[in-house]
Design goal:
Elements: H1 4-16, H2 20-32, H3 39-51, H4 56-68, H5 75-87, H6 91-103, H7 110-122, H8 126-138, H9 145-157, H10 161-173, H11 180-192, H12 196-205, H13 215-228, H14 231-243, H15 250-262, H16 266-278, H17 285-296, H18 304-308
Helix pairs in contact: 1-2, 1-3, 3-4, 3-5, 4-5, 5-6, 5-7, 6-7, 7-8, 7-9, 8-9, 9-10, 9-11, 11-12, 11-13, 12-13, 13-14, 13-15, 14-15, 15-16, 15-17
Pfam families: PPR_1 (PF12854), PPR_2 (PF13041)
Protein name: Pentatricopeptide repeat-containing protein At1g12620-like
Keywords: Repeat
């Protein structure tokens, strides 16, 4: 015999296993038998629909359905839908739901704001993201470290490094505990703006700030040095990285390999490719394209292809 608790658990289990059809069938059976689903059950179904391709419209219909049946959506309901729309690059629809939730008396939390701020940053609508950040503060939804990461990343990706540095300074003044990912975002932003010397200065100051660079930080800094043309420094940093016990990733190898190729240092490129292959990595699309370009204009012999394979 079906009862509410068992149905709720089964629907949640089906959704987590990706069995959305079974979850919807059980929901329909609940309705047929007069078992009223709770907000938690609707949230599970909406989550499942948001995770599937091309079912956001159905997820939104599920929201309307739960309201029509007298079941109140909560902040989790709206956060799930907003996240679904933002991930599918329909951030304006996410914003429509954000306004709708306030009309229903549902208070947005930090997750709501973080999701929307990230969505607008990624869609290049930085002004809207910044306004949302201010609205977040004014409404008492306290920004957390994730909020700042999203905002700093958005600013740096959209060429607003100076504003990002201003926010970083405020974070320092507020005695916020900053992790390596915050500094990595700033270093990346500096390198993108060709401020490699400033990035290097910040990189070297990390131990004094109580944080250690990780593989992403090293890879970005190596890329910045390569971009500047400081290939010997990039090579030394690569060695230091390994000495510090941080294993390079595919991106680290490929960044350095392309820098050696650009400079015509084919022997060093070949050595690094061999090392990369021993570590289980392979040349990425950008590296392969560079090799093909060099083959076509005669800067490289065909025998070099044997090293890549």
């Amino acid at each position: 015999m079906l009862h509410l608790t068992k149905c709720r658990a089964l629907i949640d289990s089906f959704v987590k296993k990706g069995k959305l059809t079974e979850a919807k069938e059980l929901y329909n059976e609940m309705i047929t038998r007069g078992i009223d689903p709770t907000t938690i059950t609707y949230n599970s179904l909406i989550y499942g629909l948001c995770m599937e391709n091309n079912t956001l419209g159905e997820a939104n219909q599920m929201l309307d359905l739960m309201v029509s049946k007298g079941c109140d959506p909560d902040v989790v309901t709206f956060n799930t839908l907003i996240n679904g729309y933002c991930k599918s690059k329909q951030v304006d629809e996410g914003m429509r739901l954000f306004r709708k939730m306030s009309l229903r008396g549902v208070v947005a939390d930090t997750v709501t704001f973080n999701t929307l701020i990230q969505g607008f940053c990624q869609s290049g609508k930085l002004d809207v993201a910044k306004k949302l950040f201010q609205e977040m503060v004014s409404q008492g939804a306290h920004p957390d470290i994730v909020t700042y990461k999203i905002l700093l990343d958005g600013l740096c990706d959209n060429g607003e490094l100076e504003e990002a540095l201003g926010i970083l300074e405020k974070m320092h003044k507020c005695k916020m505990e900053l992790d390596i990912s915050i500094y990595t975002i700033i270093i990346h932003g500096m390198c993108n703006e060709s401020k490699v010397d400033e990035a290097w200065e910040l990189f070297c100051s990390l131990p004094s700030k109580g944080v250690k660079p990780d593989v992403k930080t090293y890879t970005i800094m190596i890329g910045g040095l390569c971009k500047k043309g400081s290939l010997s420094e990039a090579g030394l940093l690569f060695k230091k990285m390994e000495e510090d016990g941080i294993a390079p990733i595919s991106g680290t190898y490929n960044t350095l390999i392309r820098a050696y190729l650009r400079k015509g240092e084919l022997t060093k490129s070949a050595e690094l490719i061999e090392e990369m292959k021993r570590c289980g990595f392979s040349a990425d699309a950008s590296t392969i394209k560079m090799v093909m370009d060099m083959l076509s204009d005669g800067r490289m012999k065909k025998s070099f292809l044997d090293i890549l394979s």
